[in-house]
Amino acid sequence: xxxxxxxxxxxxxxxxxxxxxxxxxxxxxxxxxxxxxxxxxxxxxxxxxxxxxxxxxxxxxxxxxxxxxxxxxxxxxxxxxxxxxxxxxxxxxxxxxxxxxxxxxxxxxxxxxxxxxxxxxxxxxxxxxxxxxxxxxxxxxxxxxxxxxxxxxxxxxxxxxxxxxxxxxxxxxxxxxxxxxxxxxxxxxx
Length: 190
Ligand SMILES: [Mg+2]
What we know:
This protein folds into 2 domains: 134 residues, Rossmann fold (3-Layer(aba) Sandwich); 48 residues, no CATH class. The longest helix has 12 residues. Helix 6 links the parallel strand 4 and strand 5. Helices cover 36% and strands 19% of the residues. The protein is α/β, with parallel strands linked by helices. The protein has 8 helices and 8 strands; from the N terminus they run ββααααβαβαββαββα. The strands form 2 sheets. Strands 5-4-1-6-7-8 form a 6-stranded parallel β-sheet, with helices on both faces. Magnesium ion binds next to loops.
């Protein structure tokens, strides 16, 4: 039986927060470190529109300049060696070039994967996974996405990458497991 693994990209396998923070700082003059981003709502944090945010990210080419986390490739290589089919699911649909740029980035860093799914911001990622019956695990930093995974019955395990914007979320009853770094994840037995 094929085993499936789902990975989010931004701030799960790569550091998107730093180029995003620098780009917003440069364009708005507002210097708010990402450690102070205590909710996922950057529009409120910076008092900007979604359109402005996406214009800034596009202008600063954040989809290309973001750097992978040091353990990302190692983990993907390991998971693939263990026989998993790797599904990358990202809500980068805000950029018309997201697929092209993301594929270029993944190739540049030699990330192994089997499928790249690009959803729109705010979409339920589970809706884009109808063609796959069951996943062994998902890992994402967005609490709402993790809730969708955990309540769908489609995932054996859901891991949430700990970030300042999901620290206040209580996971007691949800079945979501918080991990503090890819190092934590690397130590797990599959
Ligand atoms: Mg993310």
